[in-house]
Every structure is written in structure tokens, then in C-alpha cells.
Amino acid sequence: MAWIVLVISGLLETAWAIALDRSAGFTRPVPSVVFAVTLVLSMAGLAYALRDIPVGTGYAVWVGIGAVGTAVVGMVALNESASLPRIICLLLVVAGVVGLKVYH
Q1: How far apart are the C-alpha atoms of 56 and 86, rounded to whole Å?
Q2: Inter-axis angle of helices 84-102 and 55-77, to 10 degrees?
Q3: pTM for this structure?
């Protein structure tokens, strides 16, 4: 259960990062509220998961999911660069996250 919550929390990290960008410095109310809600849920999920998963592993997996998710949303939906070196680097992050889970 802790791993499922951790993955969901990582996905919520992607949501709050995108909402933060869209809030335009907290000048737009809807993205600002989405940011606040998803941030709290993401942190709460991380805290819950860390009851059963070591902090080093849990935090690295959470950040990895959030970073890769945010970069993918940026490339797919926000017209950010999808260069081969960038994709390779993201795949290396994914490999690291999978490795942390496998060797947990």
C-alpha cells in the first residue's frame, strides 16, 4: 500500500508543479488553489509512505516520479523541447527509480 500511495504522491507532485507554473506567481486563483491542494495531498501521501519505506528511497522515488512527470507534461502539452539527450536523461531517472524499488 505504501508504494501505491508513494506513486500517487509523485504524480500529485507533477500536478502541483504544473499548477504552480500556471498560477503566474499566484495571480490566477484556480491554478493557485489546485497547486495548494495537490501540494498538501502530495506531501501527506509522502509522509504516509515514509512510515514503511526508508526516507532515502521514498524521497528519491517521489522526486523522480514528479520530475519525470513534469518534464513529460512540459514536452507533450507545453511545447517544451523533446530532444534526444533530454529524453535519454529522463530515461536514466526512470531507471534509477525502478532500481530503487527493485533493490529496496
Answers
A1: 25
A2: 150
A3: 0.89
